[in-house]
């Protein structure tokens, strides 16, 4: 099993040897390797059981490092980077030749971001290469938001998990691509679409469902973020649980409600109804409910505004058959 460590020097040594290390970010834990090494990148795909067409996000230490992997950067991308980095924003840019095709799943674009986590930033500053890091879960499963989630998922695939505590934000980065210099939303994430469009003025949405045959963010079509127990999404979870009895349901409520008290197994994402607190708790509570003696999980739909849209997106994908 990978060892949980807090020493970035150990992480650096392993990465320099071509090994993988799980790293903390403000969104979710990533499974990191040298983004410029085809071998390291291939080990990431193998460890996760990830299809080769699903490209990885490349993590860099700062905006100045982007020029080493990307070119022809649109002005809007620079503006977004200056506004949100370090932070949960991934930009899809034209790649430079030095980035292996294995990293980008065969695409000529590369996804890049500067994570907002003290330990990982200090690690990146000391490395001579950027880190490719998808979420540190087996392909399709619920993303990890603490070191123990990662440890529970993997056996001997890599030596270390760098422990940076619980992820602050708790859902993945927002992914933005560009079409003739115009910002396009590829994946809802920890920065609400409204915050992006307040900077770009205009934000086109090219969401995978709208483009089934040629998704902009490959890999977003398949089932994702899944618990081992079946998950259902409902506006009235308690009514659904009653209907499905004697099957035993664990309920994921959005906010405090009287219903909560009549349900044996439940978690409440945010008692006060805060969307950012709900994001922070989302994956941790899904991991917890999945381990309870229940037959299925029923999640309450969140209001579709701001980060609520991101949470519903993740729940819908986790519920996909
Ligand atoms: O918050 C995050 O983004 C986390 C942390 C670890 O940084 N990472 C993460 O990686 O969520 P992953 O592999 O679970 O999701 C990456 C997404 C995939 O949906 C992939 O299709 C998309 O990024 N992506 C990567 N490169 C792309 C590219 N060149 N064009 C379009 N989409 C891309
Ligand atoms: Mg993922």
Automatic annotation (TrEMBL):
Keywords for this entry?
Answer: ATP-binding, Cytoplasm, Nucleotide-binding, Nucleotidyltransferase, Transferase, tRNA processing
Q: Which InterPro entries does UniProt cross-reference here?
A: DHBP_synth_RibB-like_a/b_dom, Sua5-like_dom, Sua5/YwlC_C, Sua5_C, T(6)A37_SUA5, TC-AMP_synthase_SUA5
Q: Domain YrdC-like, which positions?
A: 5-191
Query: Which EC number(s) does the record attach to this protein?
Result: 2.7.7.87
Residue sites binding L-threonine per the record: 27, 113, 133, 173
Q: Name one GO biological process term.
A: regulation of translational fidelity
Major subcellular location class: cytoplasm
Q: What enzyme class is recorded for this protein?
A: transferase
Presence of keyword Isomerase:
no
Output the Gene3D superfamilies linked to this UniProt entry.
DHBP synthase (3.90.870.10), Threonylcarbamoyl-AMP synthase, C-terminal domain (3.40.50.11030)
Its cellular-component GO annotations read:
cytoplasm
Q: Does the keyword Methyltransferase apply?
A: no
**Which transformation does this protein catalyse, written as a reaction?**
L-threonine + hydrogencarbonate + ATP = L-threonylcarbamoyladenylate + diphosphate + H2O
Question: Pfam families under this entry?
Answer: Sua5_C, Sua5_yciO_yrdC
> What is the annotated localization of this protein?
Cytoplasm
| Annotated ATP binding sites | 50, 54, 59, 109, 135, 143, 187, 225
One of the entry's Gene Ontology molecular-function terms is: double-stranded RNA binding
- Protein family per UniProt: Belongs to the SUA5 family.
The entry's function note states:
Required for the formation of a threonylcarbamoyl group on adenosine at position 37 (t(6)A37) in tRNAs that read codons beginning with adenine.
Name the UniProt record assigns to this protein? Threonylcarbamoyl-AMP synthase
Name the source organism.
Answer: Flavobacterium beibuense
